[in-house]
Design a protein that fits this description.
Blueprint (H helix, E strand, L loop, with lengths): L1 H5 L4 H14 L6 H7 L8 E5 L14 E8 L5 H11 E8 L13 E7 L9 H7 E12 L14 H7 L7 H5 L5 E7 L2 E5 L3 H10 L1 H4 L5 H15 L1 E5 L2 E7 L1
Parallel strand pairs: 1-2, 1-4, 2-3, 4-5
Antiparallel strand pairs: 5-9, 6-9, 7-8
Helix pairs in contact: 2-8, 8-10
């Protein structure tokens, strides 16, 4: 788990892979835009980002917020996050801490609490997210579907990675959230990454980027070789990239 989390500190690599994902995605709408459309922004003045990384979510926001606080276990992410948050908020703060843990902020404080591709690392933080969320506020979660592993699982056993994803996934997220929240709305984001025969180098880059996720289960080099072989034989490789957005209120 530690190596997986550490891989989130490479800002340059994340931005490069983000562009690669955009290039090969069937769904050309940025999932952040999909999530933004599901919210009413007039009442959002303060934001808490759990597992904020380098400010990926904030990069997609418009300006005009009063305060944004990002919490992340990697202090390397502080400069990137603050740069993104300072662009859109009057006050930007970063706290280096491991979640789940008590958040030193007043109850009912934040209009929006965000956890984008991070809640499966610390689902135990949900009650604390509820505590700091304003009674009229929204808890926004973006997470993966368990089916993201289906193509690779035809050839390899990703049992450890599956355990991580199953901590909070598109499939079980609603039942987990309903233990603490009354209103849970799910918005599906349907997508796939499609690589054609001439895009083997980009597929290799994508798999290499995921190496820390798969290394505990399988040698990443074996996965890369197998997937490239399948691409060469079939002329096309399609990978499930379905995600789900949860809009949650007290």
């Amino acid at each position: 788990m530690e190596n997986i989390i550490k891989s989130y500190s490479d800002l340059r690599a994340h931005r490069a892979i983000g562009e690669l994902i955009k290039k090969y995605s069937e769904n050309k709408e940025d999932i952040r835009e999909t999530a933004k459309k599901a919210l009413g922004w007039n009442a959002v003045h303060s934001i808490l980002d759990l597992g904020c990384g380098y400010g990926w979510f904030e990069d997609a926001l418009n300006t005009g917020f009063d305060v944004i606080l990002g919490i992340d276990c990697l202090d390397e992410n502080e400069p990137g996050f603050l740069k993104a948050a300072q662009r859109v908020a009057g006050k930007a703060m970063f706290k280096n801490m491991h979640l789940p843990a008590p958040i030193e902020m007043p109850a009912d404080y934040f209009d929006l609490v965000v956890s984008a591709y991070s809640l499966y690392f610390f689902p135990e933080v949900i009650p604390e997210a509820k505590r700091v969320l304003h009674p009229e506020g929204v808890f926004l979660i973006i997470t993966h579907s368990e089916s993201m592993l289906e193509e690779g699982e035809k050839f390899f056993d990703f049992k450890n990675l599956r355990k991580v994803i199953e901590n909070f996934s598109a499939e079980n997220g609603e039942s987990i959230l309903r233990k603490d929240f009354k209103e849970v709305i799910a918005v599906d984001y349907l997508n796939a990454l499609v690589f054609n025969k001439g895009s083997g180098n980009d597929l290799a880059r994508y798999i290499d980027f995921k190496r820390e996720f798969i290394a505990k289960d399988v040698d990443p080099l074996l996965v890369r070789e197998k997937m490239l072989s399948e691409l060469n034989v079939r002329g096309r490789a399609r990978f499930n990239k379905n995600d789900r957005i949860f809009i949650v209120r007290k």
